[in-house]
Design a protein that fits this description.
There is one protein chain. Helix content is 75%, strand content 0%. It is mainly alpha-helical. Helix 4 (76-104) crosses helix 16, helix 7 runs parallel beside helix 12 (272-301) and helix 12 (272-301) runs antiparallel to helix 19. It is globular and about 80 Å long.
Length: 525
Amino acid sequence: MIPELSRPDQRITLPRFPRWIGFIALCIGMGMAILDIQVVVTSLKVISKAFQIGDDQISWVQTAYLIAEVIAIPLTGLLMRVFTLRWLLLASLVFFILASIFCAYSNSYVELLVGRIAQGFAGGVLIPIVFTAIFLLFPPSIEQSLATTLAGFLAVLAPTLGPLIGGWLTEHYTWHALFLINVPPGILAVAMGYFALPQQPINTAELRGLDYLSLGLLGVGLSALLIGMKYAPQDGWLALHVLAWFGLSAAALWWLWKRPNPAVMFHLLEDRSLGFGCMLSFLTGFVLYANIFLIPFFLASVRGYGPLAIGLTTLVMGLSQLFTAPISVQIDRYSNARILSAVGFVTFGIGLFMNADLTLLSDRETFFWPQLVRGVASAFIVLPPIRFALALMPLDKVGDASGLFNLARNMGGALGIAVVDTMIWQRSPVYSDQVNEWIKTEPEKAAVALGMPLSDVPAPNDAMGMMSITDAIGQFGITGAINESWILLGCVSLLALPVLWWLGPVASAMPPKKLKLLKGKNGSR
């Protein structure tokens, strides 16, 4: 019989088999939620044609999902205290499945947006409860290390596989399949979670004294911030309407921070290990999500690859993560999390710098070794910060702490994509002007830059000839801007080193074997 637990600060004790079945159900839910972002983005043009809407409107299909997701993520701790791990998982999965079906059979653009908002909110809950469950279901042991590795691995692998799955579905089925693929694994996860996870009494008393104003401030603050970052790359970060969105966000979040008993426990960031862990999670999201954005953008815009070919190219990073995961478990067991994080971020940064010399002729082979390096390093930029941010957090606070940790990663990812998108918009014309100048003064250099024989470079006064290479000039501009973006991301990755130095020695960074000795001292660092 499944045991019943009543205390939120009590570890859930289960036999090994149901414990892992329940955890895998949680991981399936998180994988679906993260994968859904990248799967859908590959087919936005197909969806826009189906609904006969423009690029600016269709981009809201992604933005709506992301806004709902980041609002839900920090609420997960509160929702778990009310509904418990089991019922929150089951409700979120069912909600996500129904929202996916609703999206697949939407008859209008508005209906699709409503479905995406529902999907995003359910997905935002499914992500942090996995990292919470690591510490609720598993005591400090090799099982906890394995669970941490599995969760971190899926968090990185899912967006990497997104372009491949989305591209394959786009080429072989209709866009509806992008949403319907969530149904079978979702039903499986519901069945696994229902039979494996313990029944705990729902605690509605948590809702009676809830500060609903702080919930509204959270929604306004995070939504305005994401909307501002959506418009900033094309319209300019200092555009009046962009500054207005950022100002609204700052005001709402500042007011939320100052409230005495907010629904979201931002005061937990005063804990040194969690606060610095969130900094590293932010940097991880920044470099990881921007990296995943840049490769498909280059291959589609410069090389003319289709969605499936792009997905096959990005698969290298996912496969390298797959082979590295078992090794990383053993290394993580015996190593200090700060040292592992430092090695991981430096190695990931090297992998980013390795792609900073792209040309118009760069092909999928160009991305093989850099992606391999980044794939190997990704385990060590994801796993160690999870451990020292959450390992010694009191169990009744780990849900809120997990929400903040995952919120930091998602907001870092949103900012990273916005920054590199801005660089592409602003720096591409500079490089295009540069090659135009070379055509006038140094045609040999222009020929090399454009990847063509010198005889194909037209004279500056040859209007028809210049028109024939307009696309190549634009592609050179994009390539130059993307190379600068790789350099920027490499530098951001190296920012983890001063953060880790500033953090200093913390107890939660100890190897798991030593952490086990600190059992019962959850509040200490």
